[in-house]
Specification:
Blueprint: H1 2-32, E1 37-50, E2 53-67, E3 72-75, E4 79-84, E5 90-96, E6 98-102, E7 107-118, E8 123-132, E9 137-147, E10 152-161, E11 167-172, E12 175-177, E13 193-195, E14 203-205
Antiparallel strand pairs: 1-2, 2-3, 2-4, 3-6, 4-5, 5-7, 6-7, 7-8, 8-9, 9-10, 10-11, 11-14, 12-13
């Protein structure tokens, strides 16, 4: 009888220990798992301000806000952003098939068929593009294609102010119009051109 009791005691202790271990594993897993709260919305309209003035107006058919260590907002079904100057005049328009807004960083990442165009006829096409709200800058390390009324450019590495008034291409892969002697080096002319592969410095261009 004593032996039987000892056997059942050992067996019961083993079961309890196993259950405790399983519970501990589940508790640890639950504690270490990053829980993400997701808020969803449709037909989104948002405003970005600059010193109390309207800086940008965003519209998107769908939004997903993900809370966590680095909260962000996804726009998975296209995005459209209008940028304005201090006089509330439309400066340029940005569209993309996907965007992610990092709320704490004030940065927007755009990808897939990104298009930026301004009111004077310049258009930027690329696959990825960042917008830094605090600095009011666009930038990307990827390939870009720019077309305007007077020129077409290709290259990699791009930076520009949000108003698109002047932009820099790090590595140009197409013809670049060179300024005439004595002219502003940032203002291209229509009288001469030279293969950009011969240029070793970033090309800074002011749209015409």
């Amino acid at each position: 009888m004593a032996t039987a009791k000892a056997y059942w005691l050992i067996l019961f202790s083993a079961i309890v220990t196993t259950m405790a271990c399983e519970n501990n594993v589940q508790e640890v897993t639950a504690l270490t798992r990053k829980v993400q709260e997701i808020e969803e919305g449709k037909n989104i309209k948002g405003l970005f301000s600059r010193s109390g003035n309207l800086a940008a107006y965003l519209t998107a058919p769908r939004m997903q806000r993900v809370k966590g260590d680095t909260p962000y907002v996804d726009f998975p079904q296209t995005i459209h952003v209008d940028f304005y100057d201090n006089n509330r005049q439309l400066q340029n328009v940005v569209t993309a098939k996907f965007a992610r807004y990092y709320e704490g960083l004030n940065k927007v990442f755009l990808k897939d068929s990104v298009v930026v165009y301004n009111m004077v006829g310049d258009t930027l096409l690329c696959q990825t593009l960042w917008w830094h709200q605090a600095d009011e800058m666009f930038f990307t390390e990827d390939s870009v294609y720019i077309r305007s009324l007077t020129r077409n450019l290709r290259g990699t590495g791009f930076r520009a102010k949000s108003d698109f008034s002047r932009y820099t291409i790090d590595n140009v892969a197409g013809p670049v119009q060179l300024p005439a002697e004595g002219a502003d080096s940032t203002m291209p002319t229509t009288n001469s051109a030279k293969p950009a592969a011969l240029n070793t410095k970033p090309t800074v261009i002011a749209p015409q």
